[in-house]
Specification:
360 residues, alpha/beta, 8 strands
Length: 360
């Protein structure tokens, strides 16, 4: 884990293996196939001549030659003939057999193009679904980093209803100006008051009388109480004050939610599209500060409500904002109780947003 969807030229992706969408001869062709052979050099073609071709849905492996990878895995995708000729099954086999080969050769990372979606005519949105679903199923049982490499700015579902609904939802909720600026100032001030207190001078009782900033009844501005008392408190008293004020951390809440949902740790981080090493860091460090996309990924994996999502975000110092298209898209999915992280990432990708489950 995890699956990354990226825009790039597959011949420039640095990983253990890249997958070539080849033809049955394995001797090069157009599109991705031609680009890989050109970038790899003549050595790749010479090795491919010895393989005796490849059947549709199968996969064979060669060296990487001049490419920034150890191996090239060649697979032959189906030609689209309307969908009634086992095209989906054969396309699934391309991904499955390529992943099995990558595992057999101990590849820690592999990059796929969108197989059959070019000159072979497979509808791009359906080809994308097959790729994501098949790779996701493999990753639920295997640890590997997989890149699905998209060349250009294809929006696979731009004409579908879900994209139309989300585009309308964004139009209804998105604001160009950061209307949450006052809230962000409030949150930063609260963090500063707790984390940057150093000066001695004020009693613990007076320090404990601090109240959180609140919204004025006469305006849309936040009122800030005098925070200078925190900066004059003795260091010895500060520890007691902070201890009294500290709430459950993000890490603690995450582990509690996993237990409440009766999930295994591995089930949770795989559903969140999170790397196992990152999860280990979070689990072992109660004060770990994750990225916002990481928090949202866990919220999706745990199938939290919108209120629970906001609560978990607050534990990490974030909040959902209608000044962020990413936040609005994730909010849309949560409100509609659609917790398929790969479908969410497909939409985020199409709208040029960061994907959930990014490593940090």
């Amino acid at each position: 884990m995890p699956l990354h969807i990226i825009r790039n030229d597959i011949t420039k992706v640095e990983c253990d293996a890249i997958v070539n969408a080849a033809n049955n001869t394995l001797l090069g062709g157009g599109g991705v196939d031609g680009a890989i052979h050109k970038a790899a050099g003549s050595g790749l073609l010479e090795e491919c001549r010895k393989l005796g071709g490849c059947k549709t849905g199968q996969a064979k492996i060669t060296g990487g030659y001049n490419l920034p990878c150890k191996y090239v895995i060649h697979t032959v995708g189906p030609v689209w003939r309307g969908g009634g000729n086992n095209e989906r099954r054969m396309l699934e086999s391309c991904y499955k057999n390529s992943l099995v080969l990558a595992k057999e050769y101990k590849c820690g990372s592999v990059a796929f193009p969108l197989i059959s979606a070019g000159v072979y005519g497979y509808p791009a949105d359906e080809a994308f679904d097959v790729a994501v679903e098949t790779i996701a199923q493999f990753l639920m049982k295997n640890d590997m980093t997989v890149y699905l490499v998209i060349y250009g700015k294809n929006a696979f579902r731009a004409g579908s209803r879900i994209f139309s609904d989300i585009a309308a939802y964004i139009d209804d909720n998105y604001v160009d100006e950061n209307t949450d600026e006052q809230y962000e100032l409030m949150r930063q001030a609260q963090c500063s008051q707790i984390l940057e207190i150093q000066k001695p001078g004020v009693s613990a009782d007076k320090a404990k009388s601090f109240e959180k900033p609140k919204m004025s009844e006469q305006s849309d501005q936040y009122e800030f109480n005098d925070i200078s008392i925190f900066f004059s408190q003795s260091n010895s008293d500060i520890k007691d004050i902070i201890g009294d004020m500290l709430d459950e951390s993000f890490s603690q809440m995450l582990l509690r939610k996993i237990d409440e949902k009766q999930m295994k740790d591995s089930e949770c981080y795989k559903k969140a599209n999170i790397d196992k090493r990152l999860f280990s860091k979070i689990r072992s460090n109660p004060g770990y500060r994750p990225a916002k996309t990481t928090v949202l990924a866990f919220c999706v994996a745990l199938e939290l409500s919108l209120d629970e999502t906001n609560e978990m975000l607050m534990k990490a110092g974030f909040a959902l904002s209608h000044s962020s298209k990413l936040d609005i898209i994730v909010e849309y999915f949560i409100k509609n109780r659609n917790y398929n992280i790969f479908e969410i990432n497909e939409v985020l990708f199409a709208f040029d947003q960061s994907l959930l489950g990014s490593v940090n």
